[in-house]
Amino acid sequence: MKRVKRPELRLHGQKVRLKKKPVILAVSVLVLIVLLVSVSVHAASKKHTQKVSAGVAEETAAAVEETTVAEEKLSEEETTTAEEETTLPEVQTTTAAAPQTDGEGEYPGCKKVYLTFDDGPSPNTTRILDILDQYGVKATFFTICSPGEENEESLKRIVSSGNTLAIHSVSHEYSQVYASIDSFKEDVLDMQQWLYEQTGVTTWFYRFPGGSSNKVANCDISDCINFLNEQGFVYFDWNVSSGDASAKCVDKDTIVQNVLSEIGSREEYVVLMHDAGAKTTTVEALPEIIEYLQANDYMILPITANTKPVQHRHS
What we know:
single chain, alpha/beta, TIM Barrel, 2 domains, six-stranded parallel sheet
């Protein structure tokens, strides 16, 4: 194998032999340049990466903050909604039910008188209503079935003028009303229906013909009272009697004296009077009775669902 000779360089006629050292130096310089470039690129890349990472971190933090705010807002809205649903007012419902008394009465501490008239309507009803209007007071009418245009108009006026309409019976015939418990039930419900047809008012107030302590009933009054209670009626007797039923026409002054002599220091009085056609002296006595009561600070009231019932007997 032949050996290749190195080229020779002649300088000023002298041979100059090339050496390896300049080549090594050049290579070293090149390597150094490459390294410097690499370091520079790496530094720039790292800086960019850090910048990008910082930006991403900022965006992530902002996103997290927005999410947190949104969640807090949603939570507040849900809480508010829940509170609103929790505090919705209760729906108050009412039903057409019979009145019930609580036994305490109305206007405690005040002296009260309830003027009541049995057996109407009659030709005297209009006169009684006129007197009540004149003195600005109301009363209660325990009525019987008395058909006729004038009587039916009186029933309507009792209601429209703020007085209380109540049931006494259909006929007031003891032998019919109290023939049996079934006849008693029929009498009460028929009278309630008839009054509703005349006035549009369903009344739940009742007075026994002869009172709950009467001795003429063929049926047991206790059964009658139980029926009234079951149906939702409230019955009223009296604790003051005008005495106007003791004769066909009792003297006016006697009626006044009978009433006023029984009015004292109690808080509540229920006065029994009558609205039959023959009871003209009862009408005449009424103004004097009212004037005395008003002068002595008695409240004159119609019976209502808040009135404490006066009852002679219970079931």
